[in-house]
UniProtKB/TrEMBL annotation:
<keyword id="KW-0733">Signal recognition particle</keyword>
<dbReference type="InterPro" id="IPR026258">
    <property type="entry name" value="SRP68"/>
</dbReference>
<dbReference type="Pfam" id="PF16969">
    <property type="entry name" value="SRP68"/>
</dbReference>
<dbReference type="InterPro" id="IPR038253">
    <property type="entry name" value="SRP68_N_sf"/>
</dbReference>
<dbReference type="GO" id="GO:0005047">
    <property type="term" value="F:signal recognition particle binding"/>
</dbReference>
<keyword id="KW-0687">Ribonucleoprotein</keyword>
<dbReference type="GO" id="GO:0005829">
    <property type="term" value="C:cytosol"/>
</dbReference>
<dbReference type="GO" id="GO:0005786">
    <property type="term" value="C:signal recognition particle, endoplasmic reticulum targeting"/>
</dbReference>
<dbReference type="GO" id="GO:0008312">
    <property type="term" value="F:7S RNA binding"/>
</dbReference>
<keyword id="KW-0694">RNA-binding</keyword>
<dbReference type="GO" id="GO:0006614">
    <property type="term" value="P:SRP-dependent cotranslational protein targeting to membrane"/>
</dbReference>
<dbReference type="GO" id="GO:0030942">
    <property type="term" value="F:endoplasmic reticulum signal peptide binding"/>
</dbReference>
<keyword id="KW-0256">Endoplasmic reticulum</keyword>
<keyword id="KW-0539">Nucleus</keyword>
<dbReference type="InterPro" id="IPR034652">
    <property type="entry name" value="SRP68-RBD"/>
</dbReference>
<comment type="similarity">
    <text>Belongs to the SRP68 family.</text>
</comment>
<dbReference type="GO" id="GO:0005783">
    <property type="term" value="C:endoplasmic reticulum"/>
</dbReference>
Length: 595
């Protein structure tokens, strides 16, 4: 056989081609899930950007140490992350957390209300976040799979849009970046698990208000207050947006407040000279329109309570401005009278809105009072809680009527208002008495509950007589329903009390018949005594008896004792004399004489 010819060694170009043919390892990162989980678990659930920034710093320290990617011992030596450096997915995590740390630092400064110097520092942090997010997107496009690259691109676009949105220089470019982010998450939301689709939907909802704000700014259309309030939501991404909304709303209110010269309340007009007072009152009135609008029935109760808090804050600011003006008014009687009247009117509106808020709380508590516990273990309302709420309402109405009736000369509208709220106070007293009777009924006190139900019924009837010609039909209907409830509950309590009274002799005779000379107490079954039997150690389902696990303190038990031995032979024994065996003491000469 002929020997095969020797093959020539491969050239350098062939070696490089063979190396290029090796499969490239692609890393996979769910960027949106990683970001959302880190933010929600480390402070941003409550808007704590400082805590999240510290977490990012600690996370970067752990990543550097685990990858042995340190920056020198004594002197800092910068080490860049490039395409050749990324041999592990944790290098991509380093770049991601660098961007998150810079972004959270900027948001921390923004939420603290920065001045001019701090704003420059804040914009520098946003630029740093954009730099790291861009590097993250570039590395993911080279080392990550297609989905990771797409998510990183959306993340970088959001950071760029945030910087441009904050700078207010290129709104068109900011809107283009936000639209790019929205388009990417719309595509990603069509695939994957349900959790991933929900995350993409949430991200789209966070970006939508910013796109709307930018489009209105570019279109030159006037930003209305109700449109801005519709855009305002909750969450980490909206903290950047809130300052813009508040700035535009303040500017709009300042323009509208210039034409506002007086405040009207119950037929009286009070002039307003302070610009801050006008802006605060105008803000409160706009919030009241949103609260009493046509679509208020669809607004959840939690959001209504939030609007009430904003109304109270605005009126408190207005009242503090009025009182500051009153303190600096001097001895000018006309100005002091006007400011005193304005202060009284603002305080009356505060009391009026407080009553409305407490009525909302009562309606929420009533809806939970008739409910049973559902699968979510929702807490039901106790009658004592409703009694406390009606106590607050009675106190609020009393304070409001006292404040309005404190004037010397009252007009017709003020007299009508006082009469209306005196009747409402009577209705609140009737409902308080009704729920107080409910609390006594739940405690098994039938006599007290029956008396209170009858008293509530009499108060309700007297209120209905006074409200015979009232235009408030809703209050009349509520009082009629309350009167029927009082009548029916009083009959139920009367019947239940009679039944319990009739059953007393029977229970007494049954108890006497079971008396014995043995143990008077019922023998309790403890768990440790019946381990070999499958019996429950719990009490009855309708009683509050504790679980019987073991007896404590443990009972006394009889134990055998040592026998008593009486040694009767000891007295009859004669012992031998052993004095001769005892050692005798030697005495000296002197001791012989003196013993």
């Amino acid at each position: 056989m002929s020997k095969p010819a020797d093959q020539p060694p491969p050239s350098d170009m062939e070696v490089d081609a063979a190396a290029d043919e090796k499969p490239l390892v692609r890393f996979s990162i769910n960027v949106l899930e990683l970001m959302r989980e880190a933010q929600m678990q480390h402070g941003l659930r409550h808007g704590d950007y400082t805590r999240y920034r510290r977490y990012c710093t600690a996370r970067l320290r752990r990543l550097y140490k685990s990858l042995k990617f340190l920056h020198g011992r004594g002197k800092y030596t910068r080490r860049n992350i490039t395409e050749s450096t990324v041999t592990d997915v944790r290098f991509l995590h380093i770049v991601f957390y660098m961007a998150e740390r810079a972004w959270s630092h900027a948001m921390e400064k923004k939420t603290a209300g920065p001045n001019a110097q701090q704003r420059i520092y804040m914009l520098g942090r946003f630029r740093k976040a954009v730099k790291w997010a861009t590097l993250f997107s570039h590395l993911c496009s080279l080392k990550g799979d297609s989905r990771t690259s797409l998510e990183a691109e959306a993340y970088a676009s959001y950071m760029k849009g945030t910087l441009l949105f904050e700078q207010e220089k290129n709104i068109e470019a900011a809107m283009a970046n936000f639209k790019n982010t929205r388009a990417v998450y719309e595509e990603l939301g069509k695939y994957g698990s349900i959790e991933n689709q929900l995350l993409c939907r949430q991200r789209i909802e966070e970006v939508e208000p910013m796109i709307g704000f930018c489009s209105r700014k570019l279109g030159g259309s006037a930003l209305q207050a109700h449109e801005l309030l519709d855009l305002e939501k909750e969450g980490p991404a909206y903290d950047l947006f809130k300052a813009k909304i508040e700035a535009v709303l303040s500017e709009t209110r300042s323009q509208q407040a210039a034409s506002m010269t007086e405040f009207c309340w119950l037929g009286r007009r009070f002039p307003i000279s302070n610009a801050k007072t006008r802006v605060s009152i105008l803000k409160a009135q706009q919030l009241e329109k949103d609260l009493n609008g046509a679509n208020t029935e669809s607004v959840p109760a939690d959001k209504k309570l939030g609007i009430f808090d904003k109304i109270f804050s605005a009126y408190h600011d207005a009242r503090s401005c009025v009182r500051n003006d009153l303190a600096s008014a001097g001895n000018a009687e006309n100005i002091r009278d006007e400011l005193n009247g304005l202060d009284k009117a603002v305080s009356a509106v505060l009391g009026f809105r407080t009553i409305e808020r407490n009525q909302l709380l009562v309606s929420i508590a009533k809806s939970k009072f008739t409910k049973h516990r559902d699968e979510k273990n929702e807490k039901i309302t106790k009658p004592e809680e409703l009694v406390r709420l009606f106590d607050l309402l009675i106190q609020n109405t009393t304070d409001l009527t006292d404040l309005i009736s404190s004037g010397r000369d009252k007009n017709e509208e003020e007299n009508t208002f006082i009469q209306e709220y005196e009747l409402k106070c009577l209705a609140f007293r009737a409902e308080r008495c009704f729920y107080l009777a409910k609390s006594y009924s739940s405690a098994g006190k039938r006599t007290e509950a029956y008396a209170l139900f009858c008293h509530a019924h009499s108060i309700t009837d007297s209120a209905l007589q006074q409200l015979a010609n009232s235009p408030d039909k809703a209050l009349v209907q509520d009082l009629k329903a309350l009167s029927d409830s009082c009548r029916s509950n009083s009959c139920i309590e009367h019947a239940t009390g009679i039944m319990e009274e009739e059953s007393v002799p029977e229970r007494l005779s049954k108890g006497v018949s079971t008396l014995s000379l043995g143990e008077g107490k019922r023998k309790e079954a403890f768990l440790l005594d019946m381990l070999e039997r499958y019996e429950s150690a719990l009490g009855e389902s309708n009683t509050k008896t504790p679980c019987c696990i073991a007896r404590f303190p443990p009972p006394c038990q009889t134990v055998p004792c040592n026998p008593i031995v009486l040694d009767m032979a000891y007295n009859t024994i004669e012992f031998p004399n052993i004095e001769n065996r005892m050692k005798k003491e030697k005495k000296g000469l002197l001791s012989r004489f003196w013993g």
